[in-house]
Structures are given as C-alpha cells and as structure tokens.
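Question (not urgent): is this output format expected?
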Amino acid sequence: MAGILLSFLLSLLGRGGGDIPAAINWGDEAFAQIDYTAAAARYEEALAAHPGEPDLLWRLARVSVCRAEVAEAEARGKLLAEAESYARRCLAADSLKGEGHTWLAGALGYIALDAETERKLRLSRELEREAERAIEINPRDDAAWSILGSFYRALGNVGWLERALASLFVGSVPGGGYAEAESALKKAIAIAPDVMRHHYELGILYIDMGRKEDARRALEKAGTLAVRTAIDRPRLEKIRELLAGPDFR
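Got this back:
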C-alpha cells in the first residue's frame, strides 16, 4: 500500500511544470493529435519554470505557426508574432538549436506574405538564411528543406522585371527559383516521404512549371497521406479541387 501511495505522489510531482521531459512528451502527444491548445498549455507550463529552455521554445514556435495556418486574419497575425518571438528566444538561448532556425523561417515566411515590399524582401532574405542555417545544423531537417522549397517556388514566380525593380529600389532579391525549389522539396520527401506538405508543395510547384502529369502524381500521392497538422485538412480539400479541375481532366 505504501508503495502504491508513493508511486501516486511521484506521478503527481512528475506532472509539475518543472518536469521538462514529461512536459515535452505530453505536449508532443497533444501536438500529434492536433490538439494545439493542450500542447501549448503543456509547453508553457514547463516554460514558466524554465524560461530559457530552447526545446520548449522551439516547440511553442512550431505550435504557433501551425495554429496560425488555420486561423482567421486577426488571430493569425498575433500567432505569427508569438511564433517569431518564441523562435528568437530559442536561438538567443542556443544558437545551434536547428529547430529554432526552422520555425523562425516558417514564421517569417507567413509574416512576409502580408508585409509591404521592402519588409517582404528583408524578411525573405532572413528566411533563406534561417532555413539554410537549420539545414547546416541538421541536413535531415525535412521541415527546413520544405520551407526552403516553398520559398524558392515563390521566387520562381517573381519575374525578372519585378526582381530588377525590387533590387533597384529596396535592395537585392534572393536568388533561386523553380529548379532550386524542386531540389529542396525532393530532399524533404526523401527524408520524410509520409509528410503531406512536401508532396503537396511539389505538386503546386509542378503546376506553376506547367508539368501537369508530374503535378498530378505529386498531388495524388499527397492525397493518400495521413493528416498530421491542422492545415492538412484544407490541403486535402484543395487537392481534390485541383485534381477535379479542368487542368487535370
């Protein structure tokens, strides 16, 4: 009986915010179940006891990015600002924490979408640096490769005249385009073939490139994969919409 009581008391102690491994484990489980509110609460509880813990900070950045992906406009901006802040705090605590660079790049990419031209270019240059730094630290970071691939796809959609004008008025535009996007996304897929995002982004890239059969194969593959993040649900709807559209009939 005493042993049972002791085990019970220890389990209660283990649920406190000071138990980082347990907090990360429970938070990660909630994240995997797409319960972002519970995941964030678990990480934040532990962070209150350990304010500079990088493994909690990058996870909070990731949660905020994933929540922002499916949020309304007003909440989206707040969540992205939180994600950027968490990622920067992570890197201030440990500049070699690759995931901090990855999720800073992820946050900056979404922030740049709604930014004015000058800030968009500044953010894009930093995004590229952060994603590349994440890959330098961990060449098998599929999320960083995927973010970089999406970034290069966006650059591929910027015409030479727009690049020239942007360079003239607000500074240099990062290099890269469709070829770099394809290479990066294929690396993400090679590392994590079961992640819907990587195949979906490759399919969208091939649509932009006019490679419809390649696009069909990539999107069909994406449509067979499990939902891992909240944004995957609307992705599945978009995949069905695209494949049923005139371009693929």
